[in-house]
Amino acid sequence: MVARSYGTMQKFSASVLQNVTKTSSSMKRNPRKVRWTKAFRKAAGKEMTIDSTIEFEKRRNVPVRYDRELVQTTVKAMKRIAEIKQRREHAFWKNRMAASREKLRAHRKKTVEKTTVRLVEPMAVESMEERVREKIKVHAKSRSALIPGEGRSMGMDID
């Protein structure tokens, strides 16, 4: 629990969050620029800001006399509002992701074009065999012992 200079008490579920918040506020950081805050999410358009369901969550400081029927209708209304809000948030999220999905598709298409290896049609089997035969073929001249300078003469010239 942290007591602020302006008199509010803040409760945290984890001591890590408490320490981060102490550090952020002591460093006088702008909450709209710190990515993990609600203020950032709303300013960046990642959460709904204009919706009638948000109005119901606001705290009202008007004391109301206890009435059992009023409490029952309020609880039913809260459940219904929660369902509506969940549906609207899901639709908002889908709209947000549609734009990023298009960007992701374009990025993937671009990377595929850069990194793909172009496949060449395989050569016919006959032409492959011909190439192998050409590589194996040895070009040898026919040499004769009867012609001077060719063949395996013992160094003797024949007249």
TrEMBL record:
Large ribosomal subunit protein eL24-related N-terminal domain: residues covered: 22-49
A Pfam match: Ribosomal_L24e
UniProt-listed InterPro entries: L24e/L24_sf (IPR038630), Ribosomal_eL24 (IPR056366), Ribosomal_eL24-rel_N (IPR000988)
Domain of life assignment: Eukaryota
Database matches in PANTHER family: 60S RIBOSOMAL PROTEIN L24, RIBOSOME BIOGENESIS PROTEIN RLP24-RELATED
Family statement drawn from the similarity comment of this UniProt entry: Belongs to the eukaryotic ribosomal protein eL24 family.
Name of the protein described by the UniProt record: Large ribosomal subunit protein eL24-related N-terminal domain-containing protein
Phylogenetic classification of the source organism: Eukaryota, Fungi, Dikarya, Basidiomycota, Agaricomycotina
